[in-house]
Amino acid sequence: MERKRAEFLKGKICEWCGSSDSLCVHIPRAFSPAKVSSEIYSAAYTRFREIYRQRYQKFDYIPTGKHRHKSHPTWHKASTVHKFEPDHTDLEEQFTEVLLEDSEEGNFKKLYHEWLEETGIKELIEEETKKVREECESLINAIVLCKRCHFSSLRGMNLCPKCRNKYKPVNYETCFDCLPEERKEEFRERQKR
């Protein structure tokens, strides 16, 4: 595997910053076996929770006295006086759930694991993680990053596209230094509060 990685890195530069120093092979988290396994388990858990609710639990739905509608899409008291005539299109009443009965109380975990076995989800996870592991070993989804960029990617950051010098969280457009002055001032004001 080390020889394969060395071959893969030969003659390449970091895809983010263009450096040719301290290069490493990076496989994005989206293609990792742990991520694939986690996503399947998460979807299965959500599905089983719904099945469990339908089979073993009974709820009562009590109105909270709140509603929302087209002109006021956030939940608010029905008695709220609006500044303008409200548009009651798509009016929704809010209810809170109160658990009345749980016929399999305390057995959720046991029933969940049995369901995973019955539905073949454990085998599916093993198959999918095996495929992803093989893809990782074949370096299909791999990219080349320098150690600095690789470390930043593991922390949920990437290179600022504007200055191409500093790192920023992936959900931001630029680093703080590259923001327009008015945006910087907004952040500073928020920090003072």
Number of helices: 6
Low-confidence stretches: none
Largest sheet: 3 strands, antiparallel
| Beta strand % | 15-25%
As a whole number of angstroms, the C-alpha radius of gyration is 26 Å
Q: What characteristics describe this protein?
A:
193 residues, two-stranded antiparallel sheet, 3-stranded antiparallel beta sheet, alpha+beta
Description:
This protein is α+β, with helices and mostly antiparallel strands. The chain is built from 6 helices and 7 strands, in the order αβαβββααβαββα. It has helices at residues 2-9, 33-56, 108-119, 121-138, 147-154, 181-192; strands spanning 23-26, 57-69, 72-77, 92-102, 143-146, 157-159, 167-169. The strands form 3 sheets. Strands 3-2-4 form a 3-stranded antiparallel beta sheet. Helix 2 crosses helix 3 (108-119). The chain is flat and about 65 Å long. The protein starts with a helix and ends with a helix. The mean pLDDT is 89.
